[in-house]
Amino acid sequence: MRYVVKTPRFPLSSDRIALAKRLGISQDFLRLLLGRGMSEDSLYDYLHPSLDKLSSPYEIDGMKEAVERIKLAIKNKEKVLIYGDYDCDGICAISTLMLYLRDKLDVFYFIPDRNKDGYGISVEALDKILAYHSPKLVITVDTGITAIEEVEYLKSRGIETIVTDHHEPQERIPDCIVVDPKVARKGFYDLCGAGVALKLVEALGGREEAKKYLDIVAIATIADVVPLKQDNRIIAYYGLKQITTSPRKGVKMLLNQEKVSAQDVMFRLAPRMNAAGRLNSAMKVVGLFLENDYFLLRTLTDELARDNSARQELCEKAVERAKAQLAGTDFNDVGIIVLKNKDWEPGILGIACARLTEEFKRPTILFANTDEGELRGSARSIPQVNIFETLCALSEYFTGFGGHAQAAGISMKEDRFDDFVKAANELILKTHDKHDFTHEICCEMELPIDMDFLSFAKELELMEPTGYQNPRPTFLVKGQGMRFDRIGFSQHVKYVAPNIELMGFSKFAPCLSAKTGRVDFEISLGVNAFQNRESAQGIIQTLQFEDIDVSEDEAVCMNLHQLSCEGEAHIESTDFKQLNEWLKAPFGTAIVCFSKQEYENLLGSCDSVRKLPVLIATTRCLNPENCVVVCPAECFDFSFFNRVVVAGNPLCDGYLAKLQKESNAIYALGDCSAKKIAVSKDTLRKVYKEIVNVTRRTPKLASPHKTYIAVCSGYKVKESTFMLALRIFDEVGTVRINEKGFAQISAKSVNLEDSIVYRNTQHA
């Protein structure tokens, strides 16, 4: 993994120092904004969004003609169909126009079924609609810019069309009124589909009327990942304020919280709205904005929650199935991941693709079978690979595709799949270096560990709402000798300093359970308010160890999970000459040590190891870059490495058997026999008795480390021995501590030999 700092703390001229004072911001915050490429003249408008700065709707070609035609429809009370896309953007665009038009004329809406009708407008879907309705006018939202044949079909039926869209036009556009800012690209043209609908409402009813729908359009703007700048930033800024101060009933039920951020929309609200369209029909979701009846909305929000849970479950199954297919792969030969499965739901493939792309640092395409005998797929990519250009070069394999640099949709005949996989992989490997697929983290700035984080964190709130092209910044912070503590007995840890509290969730607990050496943290920075006290809080995103400072006893604590393993391993030996050969390829080799001393011995014997990243306990992602793993945690996944090389002594032979079962191949570099630890029954009795005494005085235990201090302060017992005792007690059922720190203690007699952990120790 490589950390790249985007903006150094460069010196500021006297004019820029004066500018920072005029804007009321710190010099570091000014550096951050300038480092993002903002001009000095634009900073005030960025920091203070204003509705007065919204661009005129008439900058979009076709707007005048669309307004005239809709006003004619209103005058004549015509029947109008609004035809929109099935994602969050299309739903919000439909809702905006429906709310504005429903008391002015006879209007209804239609959203295609992803699986039955496909994407966009289709003649088949129009036929179904026209069998029951006779609209005089069709208005498309968030779709239609490529619907040339469909518009001609409507024209043949005597129906006029207004296309409102925000997608890229092709060589021809439909022969009708077209309102798409990307056709002429005048002024600001990066609106989402709902943003274009909002501009149409503004042109029809004025800006005060359009303000009523800012909350709906803000949801679409954030969810559709359009650039959060200029008009989009203003819409999102005021729309989020509107959601917080006067939320619509449906949105309030769905989110159930007082203050709503862009992250809440992106990760909580939008997925629930999108889930229905991914699995069946999105028609019902429009009711979230159109309905006011409590019971109807409660039924709808409950359905959306269930749809989202089903979507999450299907996505998780797809990701796990994809991982199973990838196990045993030599990633030195993989430039792009392309998989298919007949059981995958097409609607969740984009999300699953994004997960795999993040884990394996490669562009990914997943395909599912359709009823028509075709494969329908979604693609996601990494910044180094333009997936749209790649697909253009391979267009002969597809029946259809479209997208942009980082995402695309594809359809293909199944018999072309194998040839496509081979051609795509050869093309990517030919045009990209393998190091493009290694882990690189871009941080905004490096911050000194002793700075005033709280003041800076408050300034960062001026950047909200954050999102695409205005991302929430992350920062590089270097530390040394830090001792993190568990938050209760949960899988979360924190480090508290006078100027900042660093939090690490779930995956960081194993690697931060010991005192750190030199370590680089990538953090996001915010303000935490508790009991009327504000403090700076850094949430750890990634970390990289520069050296190891794990004591022998800490290493034993980190390795105790090995004692739950049983079995025998038959491991082939290797040597440093062979190891150096393996390391010439960038992927596939994990070297395992179980202590600081074993790692230092390895460095002294093999110079090429010095260049490898050092992971303590846990992996950063599943991409199998060559690495050294010190004290691997129980959850460490070795299945994507070509080989595991053991360069140390585990606590029991059973752990080597576990590694042999889970990895593709395992080798011993020198002696890797078990180095058992000892525990006596007398020590276990003492620890048990003192735990009982402590829990009587303090029912809720603070954390494993603090419990060790409280229990063992009266006599000399190593922390590793105490943690070993807890594992044995938990296994036989005498002491069990939940994640909140409450202990359940049993006085029943037990046979210690029933414990696998106890059997794997030496009994002093």
Describe the protein's architecture and organization:
Helix 5 (88-101) runs antiparallel to helix 11. The mean pLDDT is 92. By secondary structure, the chain is α/β, with parallel strands linked by helices. Helix content is 39%, strand content 18%. Strand 10 and strand 11 (407-413) form a beta hairpin. The two termini are 44 Å apart. The strands form seven sheets. It has a seven-stranded mixed beta sheet with strand order 13-14-18-19-17-16-15. Strands 20-25-24-21-23-22 form a six-stranded parallel beta sheet. Strands 3-2-4-5-6 form a five-stranded parallel beta sheet, with helices on both faces.
Major sheet, described briefly?
Answer: 7 strands, mixed
Given as residue ranges, the uncertain stretches (5+ residues, pLDDT < 50) are none
Topology, number of strands: 29
Our Rg estimate from Cα atoms comes to: 30 Å
Helical content (DSSP H or I, runs of 4+)? 25-40%
- Estimate the global geometry from the Cα principal axes: globular
User: How would you state the average pLDDT, rounded?
Assistant: 92
Strand fraction equals 15-25%
Determine the structural class based on helices, strands and strand pairing. Answer: alpha/beta
* Helix segment tally: 28
Distance between the termini: 44 Å
* Lateral strand order in the biggest sheet: 13-14-18-19-17-16-15
Précis, in short:
With 764 residues, the protein is of the alpha/beta class. α11 packs across α12 and α13 crosses α16 (294-326). The protein is globular, with a radius of gyration of 30 Å.
